Every structure is written in C-alpha cells, then in structure tokens.
Amino acid sequence: MRMRKKKNGAARIEACRELLITEVEKLKEEPQYAFPTKRPLHLEIGCGKGSFACGMAKASPGVNFIAMEKVPDVACLALEKAKKCAQEREDNLRFLIGDAKNLAEWFPGSSVDCIYLNFSDPWPKSGHAKRRLTYHTFLALYQELLVPGGVLAFKTDNVGLFDFSIEEFKAFGLETEWITRDLHASEHNEGNVMTEYETIFSSKGQPIYAARLRFPVKEKTE
Fold first, then answer.
1. How many CB atoms lie within 10 A of CB 154?
2. Active-site residue, from 91, 99, 113, 121
C-alpha cells in the first residue's frame, strides 16, 4: 500500500536536517562524517517509520547507526520520531534517503560492521526475485561494504521470502550464527528491538522469521 504524500513533507524533513545525511558524496571518503564520535557503524536498509533505528540507537550507545529509507514521505516520519526522542540516546543516529542499489556509490569497502534487513518488500512474483534485498547480487554488494566477517541480521513475516533468503544465504556461503522460524518464542528474542510491522504482526499471532549470519572472510589473492 502506497503511503499518502505528507503535507509539507520537504519542510518537515528540513526541520530535522541535523539528523539527515545531506552531503552523500562525503560518505565515500568518510562514512561517519556526520557523527561527532567515530564508533562501529551499523546500517539499516529500509528503516520505515524509524522505531527500530531509534530503539537500537538508544540500546547501543557504543554504535553509530545509519537508517536508510528510499521513500521520502516515510523517511519524514522516521526523522520526526528520531528528533522527538533525541535526548534519550547518544548522538549516534543519522538517516539517509536513498535506494539500496546505490550503496556502492556512497560507501567505501569494509566500512560497515552490521547490516539490518527488517521486513523488506518480499517481491512475491518469481520474476521479481532480483529485486529482493536478499538476492545474491545484493549479498555481493553487502559483502563489499562490510568489514571482514561482518554481520547480516534479517527479519521478516513472509515465509516465502524467508525460505528464498535462506537458500540464497547458503549458496553465497554465509556462516549462520542462528536461524529461527519463531523469533519471539526463541532464546534469540532477548534484547530484540521491534519494528512497526513486527509489533503489528506479532500482536496478531504471526510468527517472525529471523536469522543472523556472517559473511565469510575473503582469502587474499597474491
């Protein structure tokens, strides 16, 4: 379902400018240029309305978070939420409006420690597999961005996307830390920060499928 265009959206985003990465070209040289303190860097791709990003930034003061969203009207809500609760966390959260397919143009290699994919669009038609954020071409992109042995954390309510993704992860050679088909009933739910979708789905009894994986360290070539 497409979100209605936000009234005065551009002005509302501008009002949260201090939390927005506006000079994207600087990321390639210094991906943490917008943060006052350099820390391990985590990236959420598709942050929605920002609940997960805000929650994670508050829970992990030793980490810098970049929450990316390609739809400006959705990013507007996330920015406003983050600004409202800014006093509850370190100055460790920034937002980036853009598409995941452009990540390699913005970030240098080996600059991100962890990538989060939360309730990504499942693109259920078989002909749309290449658009899924867990498709192997995206995995290759993430591997370049992540530090050696970097982490990919994945959550979805869509069993079709989950099964597809697990096969992609295996074929790509990712090392599994854990996989669960019912996150909230598992030991891995401790410390779990929920997204907006996750809160809605779980309240209806929908199991949450999740996995945490590591990319293999590439062998150096002579």
1. 23
2. 121
**Using CA atoms, how far apart are residues 82 and 148, in angstroms rounded to an integer?**
30
Confidence of residue 154 (pLDDT cuts 50, 70, 90): very high
Q: What is the pLDDT of residue 155?
A: 98
Contact 119, 156 (CB under 8 A): yes
Sketch the domain layout of the chain as residue ranges. 38-214
Give domain 38-214's CATH number out of 3.40.50.150, 3.30.460.80, 3.30.1360.30, 3.30.200.20: 3.40.50.150
Which residues are CB-neighbours of 113 under 8 A, at least 6 positions away? Answer: 40, 41, 42, 63, 146, 147, 150, 151
Select from 118, 72, 149, 84 the least CA-distant residue to 211.
Answer: 118
Active-site residue 121, yes or no?
yes
Query: How many Cβ atoms from other residues are within 10 Å of residue 124's Cβ?
Result: 12
Alpha carbon 201 to its chain's center: 19
Q: Which segments of the chain does DSSP mark as H helices, in order?
A: 9-14, 51-59, 72-84, 103-106, 136-145, 159-172, 196-203
Comparing CA positions, the residue from 127, 130, 74, 77 lying closest to residue 101 is: 130
User: Cα separations (Å) of 186 from 39, 56, 200?
Assistant: 30, 20, 19
Give the integer Cα–Cα distance in Å for 121 and 49.
15
> Rounded to two decimals, what is the model's pTM?
0.94
